[in-house]
Amino acid sequence: MSYTCETAKMESWRAFLTGFLVLCLLSVGSAQSSSPDCSFPAIYNFGDSNSDTGGISAAFLPIQAPYGEAFFHKPAGRDSDGRLIIDFIAEHLKLPYLSAYLNSLGANYRHGANFATGGSTIRKPNETIYEYGISPFYLDMQISQFDQFKARTNDLYQEAKKPSDRINLPRPEEFSKALYTFDIGQNDLSVGFRKLSFDQLRAALPDIINQLASAVQHLYNEGGRTFWIHNTGPFGCLPVQRFYILNPEPGLVDQYGCIKAQNEMAVEFNRQLKERIIKLRAELPKAAITYVDVYAAKYGLISNAKKEGFAEPLKVCCGYHVNYTHVWCGTKLIINGSEVYGPSCSNPSSYISWDGVHYSQAASQWVANHILNGALTDPPTPITQACHRR
């Protein structure tokens, strides 16, 4: 597989991704290993809205209906109609869904915690590249929250006088056995596209990648040993990127309607991320670090949407977007004296995009099914065996 994928890299980035996906899906069995399953006791997740299970809702205004309608049957702090990839990871590992670290009520941290919050970036929001922040919970802040969480729960665990006092607390010895997951970087590109030239953003990528690597190194020094790191998805395929481009110039978009230059930047981000992860493996010899090609999975779904039973890939389930009139999912707007709502579609499971920015539960499940078995990871290891160094 390694030789085939390396050869494919010599082709155009789009041909590589399509060919890579097809190849890896045909060879899922070869990614399996005879190694025993890891039996992770917990998951600690860091990221943005792609994996936020309630952080931004707890910190600010709660996400409103119809979010959550397809699975939770009510808003559940997720920017989707239902579950996210992180939820399917938890299910696959037979662990409960992660409570957001910022939740003040109803949280259970026995099997991990979620530090991801919508709008988060890797770099600190007030750095020059941003000028203004889209979330105060950038990656270093999430890492600081983890440090506080680990120290505080350890104190509470030691101070507990009876087993029932520890029922919702992680066991101190299990932090080193937990799975540490990352899904962040999309918003760094988003703000970069708005505020910088392509050359400026490209020049900023090494620093962004290094800050992500520093977070991994910090967790390693805190005892973390298993890391599952998602790359960033095909940013140019988010329907919101086309809301204000009704008649694209020739060459701006690909055959699926995705903005080529934005996807190429995402591919470059991912290339540098993969190279940095390879270096991290040498720097952190006791760590098992898996690079997860979410881009290939998502672009594979988008490029084969109809064959996989989905609608046109840039169609949006929830919201009203006609010409330059936009009513976002779950909101309403007065247009010509009449209220126009941003309702959800009748069959969300047939849509890839839920609200123009975030994926539907059905799409997230499709992606999860194509990454958790190790077919699109480096090394090609199923998540259940990701603790083993390759």
TrEMBL record:
One example GO MF annotation: hydrolase activity, acting on ester bonds
Domain of life: Eukaryota
Gene3D superfamilies, alphabetized: SGNH hydrolase (3.40.50.1110)
Family: Belongs to the 'GDSL' lipolytic enzyme family.
First and last residue of the signal peptide: 1-31
Key words, A-Z: Glycoprotein, Hydrolase, Signal
UniProt keyword Glycoprotein, yes or no: yes
Organism (species): Ziziphus jujuba
Record protein name field: GDSL esterase/lipase At5g14450
